[in-house]
Request: fold
Amino acid sequence: MSEADRVFDVVIVGAGVAGALVAWKLLDARGRDEVSVLLLDAGENVPEVMAPQDRMHLVQAYVTAANKTMGAPYKGRDGDRLAPSPDTPHDYYDQAKDKDEFKATYQRRVGGSTWHWRGNIPRMIPNDFRMKSVYGVGVDWPVTYDELEPWFCEAEWEVGVSGDHAEWDGFLGAYRSRPYPMSKIWPCYGDTVVAEALDGVTFNGTPIRVLSTPQARNSQPYDNRPPCAGNSTCDPICPIQAKYDATVHVRKAVAAGAVLRDKSVATYLHVDEDQRVRRVTYRTWDGGEHTVTGRVVVLAAHAIETPKLLLMSTPERAPGGQAGPAQPPRGVANQSDQVGRNLMDHLQGQAAAIVPEPLFPFRGPPTTSGVDSFRDGDFRRTHSAFRMSLGNDGWGLVEGPYATLRNLVFEEKLFGARLKERLADRITRQFRLSYSTETLPNPNNRVTVSEQVDGLRVPRPKIDFELDEYNKRAFEVGRQVIRTIFQALKVTEMKFNADPNAYSSANHIMGTCRMGADARTSVVDAQCRAHDHPNLFILGASVFPTSGTANPTLAVVALALRAVGAIRSQLQAERGR
Amino acid sequence: MLEDFIALSAVLIGEPNLDAGLAQRYLDRLLAAPVAGDSMSNRVQVLLDTFREIRDGGGDLEEGVRQRIVNSDALAPVARQIIFLWYTSAFLVRRVTPDAAATLETGRPNDGTTLQFGSPEQYFRGLMWSVIRAHPPALSGGYFGYWRYPPEN
Reply:
């Protein structure tokens, strides 16, 4: 039997953090002789995946890029056309007219978006899982914090998280049954100055506490990777892989026997008469069309591409016009009509100030501490919770250092010693704060299939997205908290966005294949198994029913690790058929 | 020409000891930069001629540069690019349309202005980072935890 005809035990679409981890876990215990795993990725398996010590090409691409975006290190290759990754709101998405812009970006290459994530990895808190019961908004998850807690611990050890156990144990009810594998990333000098100024400061009775941010960033040698050396370009590229990225588990999976096929864009999922999804059709970058068979299929292509693939898999779009009789009219796994819906992100705002004494930003990770005091509370009945970050990156998104220099040279016309003094004085005293708000699931916020296509003639994602008052009220509160903090710091200058509803994206795409107990209103069950197809699993943040305020990756990893058991059981059952 | 360029740069950025090899690369990039209107080599020539006059005329060098170069509508645009270049290794450029070639910004920078870098080696030698007591992003030369403390004096 040729490689092309081979039937795999498990076919995984997407070699990002969820797909790579599951591939490795399936193989790790049993090895290549017992389980066969195929990892497909739309993007490229660049040399740096297998040779992490050789990242200078990516670093060089980034430092010489005119626009220092999340995608900057990764562009300039065929993937830009053949498996495009959104780097701006309009370069790939087909955005609905007269709605709000969806601004999240992601990366389609082996290793996925963890190439460019910042690496912040706090836990979700208990009330995030029961918004409907506690606050009467959103929905409840079909799992609780208690059920996921051991998996959060597993996840923290698997990716390597540096954190302060004592500081975080029990915070907002989120108890911890295991310590962090590594002690925390030390707060930057600026954090210590700010924390001192905020001692005793409250907002509406809530103390404003500065907490160290748990990070998937080594504070010591861990898993054959070095400790953080404070290179400060975490997003979008860690030059030394002190920051975790999923290539760690891609390498482990491949070493354990996973077959990795890159440049393979999944375009169709075939449904058999027993409701199983076994065949995945994919298009390779050379334009060829292939179909591979798995006993179990796992979708882990992030929260835009996964639902898009499901929605593309309708009878009308069957390859060769040959739709099977069981192909569902609304796409795969979509009897609930929830696939692609409930699109969520964390919407952020920033404000900047000049503080009286130097903080010396741009040394160390771009943020090392935050204010988590507003991540829960009775106010969630009426407005979003939000997490706040202390910036260690000057004026952050408000004004980068190049713009600051540009103003001093071209507007104020400074030069020589005077320019040096003014530049040093200004940037060393720059400080910024941000708030990152949860969004509620809204069925009208959704991903669908566009008529527009990319360079491989694969449909682009169409996005419908609108903010609501729940968010906008939170923006206002976030700004008030920032003012309170600026006051405590006795800032001499501050800058807020003139538009109070201006927002940027945290790039936390969630919700589009949501988890639930009821198959009529959700796409997957508590084990991430599709309600409609027993051998189809969906991983990643697309399964989140609500967004909470934590960076999603820890829950993504926890749910993926937890799903391995169900995937193994299903594989046993499929082998018996 | 190189010596004059180094001497002028030293005054413009307040740094007496500039590396001649880096200066040669920057001068080459400057002379090759597309610019609207008059050619770059003419502009650079006039700039350096003026600087030589200031230097040969005696008197306060910095004051002379301020009066006759930094405050000159004709000469200031290129002088500012030289400052920006040493600080960041980048020019400020603008594209009139997205497909047009980038030209050196000679007016007031605005949203249409972007950065144009040279080599990574030049990037890592930008002066901005040491002026703000930090390091070129992506190359800290540091050890875990250094950011906990303010920079040493």
Observations:
- The mean pLDDT of chain A is 96.
- The radius of gyration of chain A is 23 Å.
